[in-house]
Design brief:
Structural class: mainly alpha
Number of helices: 5
Helix content: over 70%
Oligomer: single chain
Shape: globular
Largest sheet: none
Distance between the termini: 32 Å
Radius of gyration: 19 Å
Number of domains: 1
Length: about 160
């Protein structure tokens, strides 16, 4: 029962997150810029009361937009890793490779989708940024699971 629950929940969350990513990509340039501007203004009001130059705002906007790209795909990579693992019952290197390939494919399709949205452009550099987020997420997951496995092995060995 637990295995099926994990399979269904992981798949539903992964598909739901893909829908969120594609919804953000479906925003036209005005909507997308407006959202980024709200985030930047919120951050600025949180950290400073002084006015900042347009150059600073533009730099922050770029960082927010690229950070959002990376974050979307960090989350997707973790969800895909969970989904592949839940459905296969494995956690070997090929599971990480499958999650990586699926996430990068989603990033490329996301950028392709943006070419059809007014004022937006699909950029290979964004796929690269997304891929960095994917690698980061999968690397952290690998280290966490390896540390857990090592600790479990030590406990098991000490019980002998």
């Amino acid at each position: 029962m637990k295995k099926w629950f994990s399979r269904i929940v992981s798949a539903v969350l992964t598909i739901g997150w893909l829908a969120v990513i594609f919804a953000f990509s479906g925003q036209d340039s005005e909507e997308s810029s407006g959202l980024s501007e709200k985030v930047v203004n919120g951050l600025l009001s949180l950290f400073t009361k002084k006015p900042v130059s347009e150059n600073v705002k533009e730099t922050l906007t770029l960082l927010v937009r690229k950070g959002a790209h990376m974050t979307e795909f960090v989350i997707l990579a973790v969800l895909l890793l969970w989904t592949v693992s839940a459905w296969t019952g494995a956690m070997g290197g090929w599971v990480y490779l499958t999650a990586f390939a699926a996430a990068v494919t989603a990033a490329a399709l996301d950028e392709f989708h943006q070419t059809f949205v007014p004022g937006r452009a699909g950029k290979p550099t964004d796929v690269l940024i997304d891929s960095c987020g994917i690698l980061l997420a999968l690397g952290v997951c690998f280290l966490i699971f390896r540390k857990k496995r090592t600790a479990a092995n030590r406990r098991r060995d000490s019980e002998k």
